[in-house]
Task: structure prediction
Amino acid sequence: MFLIDIFGGGWLSRKQLDTRIFDSIYETIKFIKTGFLQIAPLTAYELVHSWLIVMEQHVYVADAIQICTCKRFNCDLLLSADETLVEVASKCDLFP
Result:
């Protein structure tokens, strides 16, 4: 029997874990096929600028990379439940 505690939210059996992983992969593929998700390699420019954002705004590297990637793709919208990420994106002139 295989059990895993996901962030203290409860224990999952191996079958439940496999189902959740499969569902996540399926959703990712669906978003890519419909054009709602793009997966792009990071450029050196984004890596450098993300570190500047980390140092200036005191945010996680992943958040800074997300901001830089949005800038590269000229995104019109950033949806996030992370209030800090949205605030920092506004400070970085992500959207006019």
Q: What stands out?
A: The CA atoms of residues 6 and 79 lie 24 Å apart. The helical segments are 14-34, 44-57, 61-72, 83-91. The first strand starts at residue 3 and ends at 5.
